[in-house]
Amino acid sequence: MACSKMYPVARMALSIRGPATFGxxxxxxxxxxxxxxxxxxxxxxxxxxxxxxxMCQLGSQVDLIERSENRVEMKPCPADSINFGNTQEAYKSKxxxxxxxxxxxxxxxxxxxxxxxxxxxxxxxxxxxxKRLFEAIMKMSFYGQFVAGEDQETIKPLIRRNSxxxxxxxxxxxxxxxxxxxxxxxxxxxxxxxxxxxxNDGFARxxxxxxxxxxxxxxxxxxxxxxxYFYADEAKCDHHMETFxxxxxxxxxxSEDGFSAIKLTALGRPQFLLQFSEVLIKWRxxxxxxxxxxxxxxxxxxxxxxxxxxxxxxxxxxxxxTKDESHSWFTGENLGLSGTVDLLDWNSLIDSRTKISKLLLxxxxxxxxxxxxxSRFTEEEDLQMKRMLQRMDVLGKxxxxxxxxxxxxxxxTYFQPAISRLTLEMQRIFNKDRPIIFNTYxxxxxxxxxxxxxxxxxxxxEDWHFGAKLVxxxxxxxxxxxxxxxxxxxxxNPTYEKTNEMYHRCLDYVLEEIRHNRKANVMVASHNExxxxxxxxxxxxxxxxxxxxxxxFGQLLGMCDQISFPLxxxxxxxxxxxxxGPVNEVLPYLSRRAQENRGIMKGAARERELLWKEIKRRxxxxxxxYSPEF
Length: 630
Ligand SMILES: Cc1cc2nc3c(=O)[nH]c(=O)nc-3n(C[C@H](O)[C@H](O)[C@H](O)COP(=O)(O)OP(=O)(O)OC[C@H]3O[C@@H](n4cnc5c(N)ncnc54)[C@H](O)[C@@H]3O)c2cc1C
Fold this sequence. Notes:
Elements: H1 2-14, H2 51-63, E1 65-68, E2 71-74, H3 87-90, H4 96-109, H5 112-116, H6 118-140, H7 142-146, H8 156-164, E3 167-173, H9 181-191, H10 195-200, H11 234-254, E4 259-262, H12 270-293, E5 305-307, H13 308-317, H14 323-329, E6 340-342, H15 343-348, E7 361-363, E8 370-372, H16 379-402, E9 405-408, H17 416-430, E10 437-442, H18 448-462, E11 467-471, H19 476-486, H20 496-516, E12 521-525, H21 529-542, E13 551-556, H22 561-569, E14 574-580, H23 587-596, H24 602-620
Parallel strand pairs: 3-4, 3-14, 4-9, 9-10, 10-11, 11-12, 12-13, 13-14
Antiparallel strand pairs: 1-2, 5-6, 7-8
């Protein structure tokens, strides 16, 4: 059946292993040791700051660093010792004209009609001003604010400057096709439908969530933070891979401890991601159903232990396997030694090692019928899937070779289970000696805690370096309306507060893991000051030192400098997601930046207030022509 054909290929492509540790640097400096001279004196009076704030500020730079012989040691920083309102520190890397540009850009973003019609305005401006003038205007405004440059070379000065002020880079090639909504929908329908489904209405078998939905074919709708790829053909995917490879090279070349970001939807036909996601979710749901049968519902996923004896009885009752047949499934090397099977054991059944084709039938809860997990792939589809996995493998090897960490971005929930699982497979291969591959967990998801804890537990059990980026999630609006319209459960937490709780709960779990096992790593990718403060507080309580580089912080270029730079100056590993690409090709990205910085957003208002405060401070202290030296 289809899956017995699928998994050996998946496993094979992913198990082409790279050399173990070559090209790896153990030292890192990008975001750790600020090498700033700064034209203004460090001890100059901070206008508007209290003495206490000032002491904290200096404390974050000086007192925390104790030099003993050749070693630089750092204490965890008390949460309140970094002052995110200290504008002098936050904007030390910027000349005043850049602050003014930020202020103008953020002010423009606060004008709703401008933001609502930004695409029409940009198109009209292109026509009126002509290409060259339009590009020049963009570079002086929006593009200059949010994008680092056109290519790997032009972004280097900015990367160097940020690095000198303690802020590293996650390179993020941000070119997007400028498709119309109709074109995007057409491409999506085509690339998410399997041949078998076209022929005999195989859709009927797929759950609604994992069927392509024409009304939501344009995945860009309602997304504020992330760029979107649409599948054209295999050559285009190869082209994306080449771009990511250049990005990794550039990360390796421009800083000593860089990251690159990739999106798996750029690397292959999304139909595979849809179908594989459905398989994984059905499989997990089946586990929970069996747990409920054993009276174990309501527990966190990693806490559930199924009793093998009862499990075999259930499988026999459901007609999936006789007790004799299933006996061999649960007596493998790691399975069932304790007489129980947990979620990780259960998940491990779904790969080539077991080749249990019958297990790939699961009961449909509504109809009570057994259904195959996956419809059959054609030879061409099989090849497409294999090529996608090979592209991932090529990228993993290049990252390992260059000592660059690879962030795999999280996307929509109908792709994400597959994206996360494939990323995990890469981690198993490439994270043996150090964290090279980072997975992303979206904490707006109701299931975020189960996802994080299951993967941490697996990394512990298999002894590889867990690497995670924690985000709240960029697709909320789209996810909610798709769920409501198509008719399945909303995957998103009901309120913002619940998402915050989830974020802190997941983060706390990983921080505890770091405390006990220094192999875990996490990037707190958020613009939320409370979340950053929460992280600092917990690091302090748990004795996690900034220079251990286990906890990173991440913000987007052009946003929240008041968080990034004080953290960097205090010696915390902090990174900017640094988008780059030609002006015309990053316009869709810029359009979303404008939306995220709308005046109604609390963060944007605070940023404008701080920028204004710093410009006034410079004016009053005669530093209007300040220019950073590094
Ligand atoms: C470095 C970096 C990398 C990123 N990478 C990714 C990625 O790979 N994938 C991805 O999906 N996103 C990614 N994002 C975007 C991220 O998910 C958020 O959309 C964005 O950062 C805003 O969240 P916040 O924590 O910064 O700020 P906040 O303003 O505190 O949070 C806003 C977020 O809270 C959630 N939220 C808001 N209202 C509600 C509500 N009513 N109910 C439930 N939840 C709600 C939403 O997720 C919303 O985006 C990334 C962000 C950064 C900074």
